[in-house]
Amino acid sequence: MLKVAAHAFTNALIPITDIPDDDYEVLSCEIFKPGADVKSMDILLKGKKGFVNIEFHKQPLAKYHLARDFEYVVQYFFFYGEIIDQRIVVVDKERKSVDKLQIMPDLEYKGKIDYVEELDGQIVLNTIKDKIKNNQVPNELELFIFSILPITDHDFDDEEKLMEELCNLTPQLNISEEDRDAIVFCQMILIELCVNDDYLKEKLLGVINMTSSFIQNRENALKRRIVVAEQTALNERQRADDAELTASNERQRADDAELTASNERQRADAEKKRADATEEILKEIVENNDIEFNKETMKKISSVTTIF
Asked: Which end of the chain has fewer CB atoms within 10 angstroms, the N or the C?
């Protein structure tokens, strides 16, 4: 969340961390070292006066946290040959953070730490309300603090009430949609952290997501679903047509088979009639003429009649 706000409102880091006022460029945060895992800093800035690395921690600094941050500075120097000024921003109400490392008996590293709780969120909240009322544009520092306001110093005892007020203000901010999206992303995280009531959680997510970019994305998603649904329906109709064609072909084959069977029955009936007629003729010949047949003739007659 802090990293998102820092990348969105980079100039706010100047007064927050007391780094030199400069025209900073955000650089790649990754440190590539052959044969080792890629190290990734939270944010790396380059100005006319040099490099600044800012690390963010959502909990008090333990010794290994500070050691890791110091390692970024050392590795960047060894690999790129650049000296980095480092600042560390920490969420630590009780000031339990470790702020120095003993590197050698006569060498120590002391972290330059800034505490989020020292940021006056209440003043920023009041300023934001006034600027909304007067249709004014908040500056980057105000937007940065507004994005993380629940973890700054404020007058609210009920964080759910605070989140409800912040989320209702977000759609009213006179800012770009890109900046609003960054704030919304931070607030989505804060809603998960600060709001326990499921109904209120869903309500607030709905409020902050009704930005123009969200609506556009939702409309695009709906259009995609419509296209998919239409294609699915078309495919289903095609499958139904194919099934009907298959059934029609099966019915045609069944009709053809029935016709063939009918023809076979007709041929069988005709053969039987001819056999019956032949039998009657032979019977009359035998009875009326008292004819005796030899064995060969008897066989031929027996093959087509059942007289003998």
From this structure: C
Interstrand relation of 84-90 and 113-115 (parallel, antiparallel or unpaired):
parallel
**Is pLDDT above 80 for 154?**
yes
Contact 160, 196 (CB under 8 A): yes
Report yes or no: 114 and 13 within 8 Å, Cβ to Cβ. Answer: no
Q: What is the pLDDT of residues 28-43, one digit of tens each?
A: 777 766 556 667 889 9
Flag whether 85 is in a domain. Answer: yes
Identify any residues that bridge with 54 across adjacent strands, giving them in sequence order. 43, 87
Q: Judge if 99 and 128 occupy the same domain.
A: no
Determine contact, residues 9/144, Cβ cutoff 8 Å. Answer: yes
Indicate the burial class of 299 (C-beta count within 10 angstroms; 0-12, 13-18, 19 or more): exposed
Read off the pTM. 0.64
Please say whether the beta carbons of 198 and 170 come within 8 A: no
**Domain range spanning residue 3?**
1-116
Please tell me the number of Cα atoms within 13 Å of 125 on its side-chain side: 21
Task: Please tell me the predicted confidence (pLDDT) of residue 276.
Answer: 73
SS (H, E, C) 82-107: CCEEEEEEECCCCCCCCCEEEEECCE
Size (the chain), residues? 308
* pLDDT for 257 beyond 60: yes
- What mean pLDDT comes out for the span 78-107? 90
3-state secondary structure of 25: strand
Report residue 261 as tokens.
């069977």
Residue 163: inside a domain? yes
pLDDT, average across residues 46-52? 90
